[in-house]
Specification:
The complex is a heterodimer of chains A (about 180) and B (about 110). Chain A contains seven helices and one strand, in the order ααααβααα. By secondary structure, chain A is mainly alpha-helical. Chain B has one domain: Helix Hairpins (Orthogonal Bundle), CATH 1.10.287. The longest helix of chain B is centred in the C-terminal third of the chain and has 32 residues. Classes of the chains: A mainly alpha (about 180), B mainly alpha (about 110). Chains A and B meet through helix 1, helix 2, helix 3, helix 4 and strand 1 of A and helix 1, strand 1, helix 2, helix 3 and helix 4 of B.
Chain lengths: ~180, ~110
């Protein structure tokens, strides 16, 4: 059962990722990326990470991708123009990518002492995960919340209409 | 049921398969980053690379029965959410200034 689920959802993953590259309209790429992320959530569940599977669906496939599709629709981005790209990408980039994949695949296939994953091996419960998160790693967790807050403020400041001066003047006049 | 099918159903997947999938997804993300000419799609390729790395984190957490590996993925997700919010805000600002999303035309830092 595990084999079948893995093959099906790994196939979805790869198909979605390849479709992301082939589509010329950004909204199609965004929908392919949602397929990739949902399939990855199933793979996390197969590896016994139930909390991460839920978080992947809610945070990635839900929140982040909704943000992406929203921006694509807001900007009304049309088809992308096919250009040849830079010469550096052709000469250095693609051989480097092929070399990267070759090195990674060689290292991974030569590793012998890796285990296997089966459905009977149980799952890491959310309780187990949150015990470590809220005792040993409480400080990084709280720092992350500050990071999110700064990101919200930064996003609002960047996406605000008009340049900074007029916005500031408007606020000042409103305050009066 | 046919015994060969039963053995196939009970067979476990080697973790190399997961790591290999992660490597291939990462490479596809790099290719997308180099090939795509739309700013939003380039940004999506970065998200694809982050997801590929997350998969290998979860695989290694499974291998060594380490909870901290999964917590690291949780932190990566949080940082990715922050990054997506700020990055898309920057894309909106760029689009407002240039009225284009083609990366070939956005080649100056100055507005």
């Amino acid at each position: 059962m595990h084999v079948i689920l893995f093959v099906v959802f790994a196939g979805f993953c790869l198909g979605g990722a390849i479709n992301l590259l082939l589509q010329s309209h950004p909204i199609n790429s965004a929908l392919s990326l949602i397929v990739v992320m949902s399939s990855l959530a199933v793979l996390y569940l197969l590896l016994g990470a139930e909390f991460l599977a839920a978080a992947q669906m809610i945070v990635y496939a839900g929140a982040i991708m909704v943000l992406f599709t929203f921006v694509v629709m807001l900007l009304n981005a049309g088809r992308e123009e096919r250009t040849l790209g830079s010469r550096a990408a052709g000469i250095i980039g693609f051989p480097a990518v092929v070399a990267l994949l070759a090195v990674l695949a060689t290292v991974l296939l030569r590793t012998r002492d890796l285990g296997t994953a089966a459905l009977s091996q149980g799952i890491t419960s959310t309780e187990e995960l949150s015990t470590v998160l809220f005792t040993k790693l409480l400080l990084p967790f709280e720092v992350t919340s500050v990071l999110i807050l700064i990101a919200i403020l930064g996003a609002v400041a960047l996406a605000r209409h008009g340049n900074g001066d007029s916005g500031g003047n408007q606020e000042r006049t409103e305050a009066k | 049921m046919n015994p060969s099918i039963t053995s196939l159903l009970q067979q476990a997947v080697p973790l190399q398969a997961y790591l290999l999938l992660s490597a291939v997804l990462f490479t596809l993300g790099v290719i997308g980053f180099l090939v795509k000419r739309n700013l939003i799609t380039v940004f999506m390729s970065i998200e694809l690379m982050l997801n590929a790395v997350n998969l290998s984190f979860v695989t290694f957490a499974h291998q060594w029965h380490a909870v901290k590996g999964q917590i690291f993925v949780f932190f990566v997700m949080m940082v990715a959410a922050a990054e997506a919010a700020v990055g898309l805000a920057i894309i909106i600002a760029v689009f407002r200034a240039r009225a284009t999303l083609a990366v070939d035309r956005i080649d100056l830092m100055k507005l």
